[in-house]
Structures are given as structure tokens and as C-alpha cells.
Amino acid sequence: MGSEINRRDALKRAMAIGLLAVPATSLLSACASSDGGDSTKKPSSQGTKSADNPLGVNKGTALEAFVFKGGFGDDYIKSAEADYNAKYGITIKHTGTQAIGPKLQPRFASSTPPDFMDNSGADSLDTAALAKTGKLQDLTPLLDAPTIDDPSKKVRDVLIAGTVEQGQFGTKEMYAFNYAFTVYGTFYSNKLFKEKGWTYPQTFSDMLALCKKIKAAGIAPFTYPGKYPYYVHFDLLHQIGKVGGKEALNAIDNLDDGAFKTDAVKEVVTYYEELAGQGYFLQGSEGMTHIQMQTAWTQGRAAMVADGSWVENEAAPTMPKDFDLAVGSLIGSGPGDKLPFGALYAAAGEPFIVAKDGKNPTGGMELLRIMLSKKQTTNFTNAIKSLTCVQGAADGMTLTPGLTSANAALKAAGSNVLNSRLQDWYKKLNNETLGNLTLDLLSGKIKAAEWMDKAQKASDDTKKDSSVPKFKHL
């Protein structure tokens, strides 16, 4: 989250423990007095471009990297850094941390940011706000640079569809490079399901029937991380897209009037109300972190969790070797849904950013180019059990059960892939405001109608707030 919620902690993977996300408003105010200025200025670190150095890295120039040390760890970055160090004659200053926001917000405000950052986790910086205030390097030069393995191809030509768009914020410029390709959904133990004779369902009604059987077997059907309840949105928001179509999901992202008051929203949120009403969530989930949720699940106290494909790596310390991890596609109301069963939430995640005011933004982009090499993508997939954003990078590799399941689900989805941008366009709205509403829904404190009313008001309030940057699907 990997990384969570862009991967994860979303996402795409939100994973720092016990810390609040940095609000966009505070970041904007902190940055207001130190705007990046002319985006076309040539960085002082710029060197001479060549076939072997297409971005023009100035050899010997220092480079500082801050990396989110969550579910993916940071060893895979160190591997790429070693290649950079050997080529450009330096030793990158590397910091691995889960406190990206608290440590870097003051540095952005003072125009002394590190060059290269893995901006992931629950406590990440607000990328949208940084982009809007001119703090980030436009990564288009990287997209147009040749790849390391095949100089006849540009970087943009080898990326999985949607990767570039995931790093855009309402304009053609790309400010975040999402390295991992994450499949999200309902994860479960295929071994457990086979032993019990359970079949992963396709509809809400069938899931409720399965939950009754699971509960009767002495297992909670679901658990969730109440400390980070937006994990549930990995399923909930995209189930709205399955039922109501991509237009229903885009309307929510766009803060459209009445976007949370549609029939599709009502069907999905009513389903969660019924799950709560029937006691299908593990008792105590409201107080759990994502790690505690995963541990309860891998220990067999709960059958299913909403998560991202990074979970295979993140939960490895407690996951039995014969767990046989699998992911289920989005479920919905049935044949009347706008998208068929098999529709999936999948997106490039684990966002990397380069500071425009850093000492070596060119070097930051070059480090990303190195990470896209076959050597480094293979290392990442082998070590982290996650796909990367590079087309065919995992071809010919022996994949783990979870990654095999995720890869199969992605292929089965075809063009029916959904990706809400709410979590990175309006982080506070998704993670905190809607997250707290979802927590109240799952713990039975509110009903679906109240969730919808308050979600719509929160969306409207965000829309009216002039201090919050606004975005639209292109």
C-alpha cells in the first residue's frame, strides 16, 4: 500500500499505523508562501544528455530518497538505488519511514524537499494539493525517455493502460508515477472455501446466504480495519460502479450533485447495512488496524477481507503456507447491473513523486527509469509478490497463489476495470469523512439512508470549499 490505497492504504495502500492523513487544506496553506515558480526552469542538476543518459543526469550530484516502508518494505528501492549509485558515482541518501507526511510537509513548505519519494501509506502527503501548488516535477520527460532494456521504446509505450492517467490530476501533466499494479477485491483462503464446500458468490443476496453458512460454522464472514475504515471502500465504491456503471462512480469522483443519492448507491449501502444487522463482521473490528485485521483473518477468525493484492506480502508473517490466497471479483445486485460479474477494481498504485524544488529532480526521474528495467521489475515481483505497471513484466515468472489469482481476475475483467479517484483527489473526504461514516454503518450506529444523506452533504461541502483543489474525469 504495497502500499495501501492508491494502493492501499490505497490507494492505492494506506498503511501507516495510528496516524492521521495530512489534510489538503493544511498542506495548501503551508505551501502557499513557497510556490514552485516557473515550471520550465532548467534545474541546476541538469547534465548533458546522451544515449546512455537520456534525461541528462549530472553525474556526481547528490540524490535524496524518502520511501514509505510499509507492506512492500524498501529493499526493492535499495536495489534500484544500487544501480543508480554505480552509474552516477554517488550514494543516494535513503530514508525508509511510515511517517511520510509529518516528516516531509515542513520540508515542502520550506522548499527543501527530498528529490524522490514513495508517497504511500495512511500518513502520506496530499499529492493532488502538491500538484496544484506547483511543488511536483512533471514526469512527462520520463514518459518520453527510452527504456533501459529497449531504447527503441519509450517508457510510456511499455506501461499498462491507465498508469499515466492514474498520475494525472485533471490535466495532461503526470505528477505521480504509480509503480505497482494492484488488484483489489474480497480476499479469502481458497483452501478454507474448498474444505467447507463454499463457492465465492456473484450477488449480494448470494453473499448474504454464504455469510449465514460461514457464521454457522463459527467463523465471522468479514472483518475490517476500523482504524482505517476506507479499506471497505475498495469494495463498496466499486460495487457502486458495478451496479450503476462507470458513470455512477465518475459522478462521485466529480462531486456531482446527488451522486450519493442514486439507486446504485442505495442498493450497495443497504447491502452493507444488512451485513451489519446480521452480525456478519468480526466483533472488535472497529478497533483494528489493517495489520490486526489481516492477522485475525489469516488465523481463521474471519473468512474474508477487502484489501489489495499487496496483502500476500504484508500478511506473510501470519499467513499459513497452505492458505491458498484468492481474490473474488466485485459482486452486485445481479443481471440488472450495468457491468457483468468479473468487473474488478484494479489500478496502478504505490505513487512515486519527484519534487520540482529538489536538488536533483532529473536524478529522481532517472531512478524511476531504472526501476522500470526488467532486472528491477523482476526483483520487485519476486520479492514483493506484486505486479508492476510494466506490460508483460511478469511473463514467464512463477507466481504465488495470490498473484496468480489476481492476474487471472484481471484478465477475466477485460475492459470492465473500475478505478475511483476519490482516494487521491479528495483524500480527506474519502479517508476521514466517508471513512467514519462507513465505520458507523458497519458497527450498526447508522442506517443506509443516513449514510447516503451525510455522504452527499460531505461531498457538497467539499465541492463548496474553495481551499480544496477540484478535479474532473477527462
UniProtKB/TrEMBL annotation:
The lineage of its organism: Bacteria, Bacillati, Actinomycetota, Actinomycetes, Kitasatosporales. Gene3D superfamilies: Periplasmic binding protein-like II. The keyword Glycoprotein does not apply. This is Carbohydrate ABC transporter, N-acetylglucosamine/diacetylchitobiose-binding protein. PANTHER family: ARABINOSE-BINDING PROTEIN-RELATED, SN-GLYCEROL-3-PHOSPHATE-BINDING PERIPLASMIC PROTEIN UGPB. The keyword Signal applies. Belongs to the bacterial solute-binding protein 1 family. Its main location: other. Residues 455-467 have a biased composition (Basic and acidic residues). Residues 32-55, 455-474 are annotated as: Disordered. Residues 42-51 have a biased composition (Polar residues). InterPro entries: Bact_solute-bd_prot1, Chitin_NgcE, SBP, TAT_signal. It is found in: Cell envelope. Coiled coil: none annotated. Keywords: Signal, Transport.
